[in-house]
Amino acid sequence: MLKKNVVENTVLAALGTGADFAEIYMEETKRNTLSVVNGRVESAQSGLDYGVGIRLFFGNKAIYGFTNDTSEKNLIRIAREAAAAARGERVYALQGWRKMNFSCRNPIRIMPDEVEKRKKAEKLFLASEAAKNYSSLITQTRANCLDVVQNVFIANSEGLWAEEQRVRSRFNVEAIASSATEKQSGHLGPGGSVGFELYEQIDVEERAREAARIAVTMLGAKPCPAGRMPVVIENGFGGVIFHEACGHSLEATAVARNASVFCGKMGQQIASSVVTAIDDGTIPNGWGSAAMDDEGTPTQRNVLIENGVLRSYLVDKLNGRRMGAKSTGSSRRESYRFAPTSRMTNTFIDNGKSTPTEILGNTEFGLYAKQMGGGSVDPATGSFNFAVLEGYMIRDGKIAEPVRGATLIGKGTEVLQKIDMVGNNLARAQGMCGSISGSIPTDVGQPMIRVKEITVGGRG
């Protein structure tokens, strides 16, 4: 960590030409990855990322610089160069330091960087073997594990002095099934802000067999029919649709630039009354959880939509200035190389009152999206396009034959209004989210939901 006098001298240099806010962000991140392909170790890597980012505000404008040379001389140089890029009306004084004390939201029992690679590899070998033995159609397996230990320090000219250690672990498994003419894949990637105890919480062999089952099932599936129809989306990773099609449009990154379809709609009905959506960075051991955001603001539970009514945006310091709004503890970044901005943490549609049996039973015909794949969205319009990794037709209220090649096409604003049933089986899944402040870990989630009508793309 930086010495107090180095922090003070760097901040004072940043304020030297009239900046009204200066911030130092320092991190030391240890990262370990291990990958096994077809039962053999393909790669084992360890790395250390270390550096400092310096950010200045001049009103509603910001200047950012970063370095991995953390000497006092170099930090002061970068601060002065950044300050010289703009001029304020007066020089601001440095306030006294206020050390932040956070309660531990992510208790760690087994530090992953202290576990031998051999023990990690044993888990991956088990997964690879389980997936391979599921079916003779499985032609390739890949299992890998990731663990990250990140130490973060933040200080700013408002007197904030904050530190946090963040530990995350994730297991990924992929199985590929092949025929003479095609290939299909299945994938699962559980994780959390946990240590090596993750592998006591999950059964890697069971997860591997499930990935293999998806691949084999989709290999034998017929093409999905195209058209507008009801779609039932399963819990867990099904929440990626809300995350992408709606969540990004609720980030101040877009709202402050008037580049969101939800601008100016606070307090208005933007979704069906059965929809309540939450972003909660305080969930114990959640994949996107932390005690503080990347500006040193405590994370919190933000109700974004309540019974269909827009209640909150996700706000960071800079965009909060532009909007006249307070930070919601939502500022995040991939590393010191990126200036932070408003991002999601653990975002999900909350439980409703329907059961999965009721939702399916009330759907005479439609598509059941059990597993969602990747997609794309335009936050300015909310238009999205998502692949369905594992899908089935619904006939007479029951899950029928598997179908492949399905895509869901629409607009977030329309989908929110057309959700007419929300289940009571909330589950979350882990992913990585990319935006202007880099790639960050985020949870997505929901119970089973039904969209009464949406465009389904397919070849059937």
Automatic annotation (TrEMBL):
GO terms for molecular function: metallopeptidase activity. Pfam families: PmbA_TldD_1st, PmbA_TldD_2nd, PmbA_TldD_3rd. GO terms for cellular component: cytosol. One of its GO terms (biological process) is proteolysis. Residues 227-458 form the Metalloprotease TldD/E C-terminal domain. It is an enzyme of class 3 (hydrolase). Its EC number is 3.4.-.-. Residues 112-219 form the Metalloprotease TldD/E central domain. Residues 22-86 form the Metalloprotease TldD/E N-terminal domain. SUPFAM superfamilies: Putative modulator of DNA gyrase, PmbA/TldD. It comes from the Bacteria. Belongs to the peptidase U62 family. This is Metalloprotease TldD. The gene is tldD.
